[in-house]
Amino acid sequence: MTASAQDKKFPKSRSEEPTGVKVQKRRRKCSTCSQLQQLHEMLWYLAEALTLKASRPIHRELSFALDETERLTQLSPDSLMELDVPSHRADVNALLLRTSELVRTESRRQRKSSKKSRKIDRRGADLIGANLRGADFRGADLRGAYLIAADLRDADLRVTDLIGTDLRDADLRGADLTDSIFLTQVQINSAKGDTHTKLPHLLSRPTHWSVFEQKNK
Hints:
This protein is an all-alpha fold. It contains seven helices and no strands.
């Protein structure tokens, strides 16, 4: 078949764009999706913060931040591209830090008679592969900590701030994460657990945990 015949059989689309334009559009779309993903992540944290009784003193500020973040998710793609997400995230993070401190302080106050009610701050700590079996982290600040492949079997993580904590391959069998704060499904999905692992009521037990449990019986 000649070139002219091929052109007649498969005519070029008049709307076909140069490769450079396509690449720019794809990059723009990816950037917009990234902006939206970050905003929706903030919405999750703010919504959770508003459900916590100890955060009542700052409920008005949290509600305002939630409404503003929701508004930002409705922006046009062009406006999203221009949005200073890091700046907004910094404002939201300041509120989440205050929420965390209020919740954990209240937890320690309720356990003031216990010798183990001390303040535990391991924010950003490198605990990769650490043996933390049975550790008492109640009311601890573990935000941003690296707990990759850490042994957290039977650990007490109630009312623990776990925002941004890296739990990839962490062993959570028998661990108690009841009322832990700012924990997401993505974090749980990346860890290992079993039927004895206690999770916050909004999170689901990953299906692969049952496979892991069977292998380790």
